[in-house]
């Protein structure tokens, strides 16, 4: 009888995504149900926090219970605003919240090896933290740029690791994984580039051949006369369409969050191609925004469903 192959050392790379990162809990839940043992963990931003909880021995059921039961609006009130020099929020109270859930204070106390990814805000380097103060490493990894102040770490100032490595597959390999499952909580954006402009009704486009004329004072004067002749009030006092009265511009935090999400989406695609995860789990989280922590149950369920659907592939991959 041929001996059964030993299970391969399995790494799990948990990506960034803020509230969408709750899906990682569902992924872990489904992996446990399928009998898949996680030997190595790496994480960025919220994925680093979930990874730290799991590596410290916090059960998936307990994580899910806390995520569903936390009053996230109340938690937001605990954040400590600061004078906006390098960030709007200091984040030490958020660290205390993480400390209440984490039974470990250092990497050395963890039951599973963990690598936490942050970004050096001054050099632009990705920083992988594997030893020492676990809470400070997590605080650095979740320090959303412009919102949370950078975290001093030795001689560095660290912020959100998602800026450089949203799904740290390479870190899991470096920690000794033979196969790596990446979990991406950033929905894929497939949008064609669009171009928009405000044409002047009844006027011809200015072609490059007319550039010399435009640059002469006579040409500039001619343009202004044409504008004034058409509708001076509309053209000069309202150069762009007035926004719909039913729509308000997004708030500053949403602008920050969405800007980083757009960047992370592009970086993520490049990183996943380069790092070549053996398998990538991407839950359907398109209906959940970065800040909707109150929808934890939906995010967890999405992670669980996608992982269950991929379980045959996962079991073939890890062996045993």
Automatic annotation (TrEMBL):
Q: Where is this motif: GXSXG?
A: 43-47
Query: Record's CDD domains?
Result: Pat_PNPLA6_PNPLA7_NTE1_like (cd07205)
Q: Which PROSITE patterns match?
A: PNPLA
Sorted alphabetically, which Pfam families does this protein's record hold? Patatin
InterPro entries from the entry? Acyl_Trfase/lysoPLipase (IPR016035), NTE (IPR050301), PNPLA_dom (IPR002641)
Task: Give the keywords, sorted.
Answer: Hydrolase, Lipid degradation, Lipid metabolism
Motif DGA/G positions after renumbering to this chain: 160-162
Keyword Cytoplasm applies: no
Taking every annotated instance into account, which residue ranges of this chain make up the domain PNPLA? 12-173
Q: Catalytic site residues? A: 45, 160
- PANTHER family (alphabetical): NEUROPATHY TARGET ESTERASE/SWISS CHEESE D.MELANOGASTER (PTHR14226), NTE FAMILY PROTEIN RSSA (PTHR14226:SF76)
Designated name of the protein? Phosphoesterase
Instruction: Name its species.
Output: Desulfuromonas versatilis
């Amino acid at each position: 009888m041929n001996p059964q192959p030993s299970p391969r050392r399995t790494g799990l790379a948990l990506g960034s995504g803020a509230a969408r990162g709750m899906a990682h809990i569902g992924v872990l839940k489904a992996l446990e149900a399928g009998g898949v043992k996680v030997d190595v963990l790496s994480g960025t931003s919220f994925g680093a926090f979930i990874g730290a909880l799991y590596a410290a021995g916090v059960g998936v059921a307990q994580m899910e219970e806390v995520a569903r039961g936390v009053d996230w609006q109340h938690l937001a009130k605990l954040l400590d605003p600061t004078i906006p020099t390098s960030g709007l929020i200091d984040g030490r109270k958020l660290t205390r919240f993480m400390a209440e859930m984490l039974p470990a204070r250092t990497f050395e106390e963890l039951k599973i090896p963990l690598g936490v990814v942050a970004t050096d805000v001054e050099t632009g380097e990705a920083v992988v933290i594997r030893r020492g103060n676990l809470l400070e490493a997590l605080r650095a990894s979740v320090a959303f740029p412009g919102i949370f102040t950078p975290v001093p770490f030795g001689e560095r100032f660290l912020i959100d690791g998602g800026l450089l490595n949203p799904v740290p597959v390479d870190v899991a390999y470096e920690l000794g994984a033979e196969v790596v499952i990446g979990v991406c909580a950033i929905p894929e954006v497939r949008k064609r580039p669009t171009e928009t402009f405000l044409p002047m009704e009844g006027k011809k486009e200015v072609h490059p051949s007319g550039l010399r004329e435009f640059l002469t004072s006579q040409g500039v004067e001619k343009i202004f006369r044409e504008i004034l002749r058409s509708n001076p009030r509309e053209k000069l006092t309202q150069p762009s369409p007035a926004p719909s009265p039913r729509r308000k511009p997004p708030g500053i935090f949403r602008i920050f969050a969405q800007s980083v999400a757009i960047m992370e989406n592009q970086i993520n695609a490049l990183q996943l191609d380069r790092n070549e995860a053996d398998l990538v789990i991407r839950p359907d989280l398109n209906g959940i925004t970065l800040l909707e922590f109150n929808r934890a149950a939906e995010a967890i369920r999405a992670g669980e469903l996608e992982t269950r659907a991929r379980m045959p592939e996962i079991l073939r991959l890890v062996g045993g």
